[in-house]
């Protein structure tokens, strides 16, 4: 997994800043702060993120391809341009039945 910051004050095209890598999930940090983070993620076909539970809401936006998002065993298929909010404290898994790219945004403030 790759994890490098995007240069500030420089224009970029989000779908072009991250590449597919065979048999891998690639993560590129766009913004990382103590109050939350924004990452671009690419998934090769057949890859997934293992089930997890986050204490924060997570906003997912598909920027290329199609993803399967499982939230508490309920499956949703999202396509390019579609988004979903994974609620805090929910079991969730993100699967690539075909390759795709997404943006993940986690806001950690407001949970005090």
State the gist of this model.
With 112 residues, the chain is mainly β. The chain contains no helices and 8 strands.
Give an account of the 3D structure.
The protein is mainly beta and 112 residues long. The protein has no helices and eight strands. The protein has strands spanning 25-33, 36-43, 48-53, 58-71, 74-79, 83-86, 91-95, 100-107. β1 (25-33) and β2 (36-43) form a beta hairpin. This is Cupin domain-containing protein. InterPro entries: RmlC-like_jellyroll (IPR014710), RmlC_Cupin_sf (IPR011051).
Q: Topology of this structure?
A:
Blueprint: E1 25-33, E2 36-43, E3 48-53, E4 58-71, E5 74-79, E6 83-86, E7 91-95, E8 100-107
Protein name: Cupin domain-containing protein
> Beta-strand percentage?
over 45%
Radius of gyration: 14 Å
The number of distinct helices, counting runs of at least 4 residues, comes to 0
Provide the structure class.
mainly beta
Q: What letter string, H or E per element, gives the SSE order?
A: EEEEEEEE
CATH superfamily (homologous) name: Jelly Rolls
Name a few traits of the molecule.
single chain, about 110 residues, mainly beta, Jelly Rolls, 8-stranded antiparallel beta sheet, about 0% helix, globular
């Amino acid at each position: 997994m790759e994890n490098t910051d995007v240069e500030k004050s420089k224009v970029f095209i989000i779908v072009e800043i991250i590449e597919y890598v065979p048999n891998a999930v690639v993560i590129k940090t766009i913004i990382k702060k103590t109050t939350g983070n924004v990452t671009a993620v690419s998934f090769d076909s057949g890859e997934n993120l293992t089930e997890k539970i986050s204490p924060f809401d997570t906003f997912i936006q598909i920027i290329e391809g199609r993803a399967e998002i499982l939230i508490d065993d309920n499956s949703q298929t999202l396509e390019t341009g579609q988004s979903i909010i994974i609620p805090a404290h929910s079991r969730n898994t993100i699967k690539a039945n075909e390759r795709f790219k997404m943006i993940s945004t986690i806001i950690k403030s407001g949970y005090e």
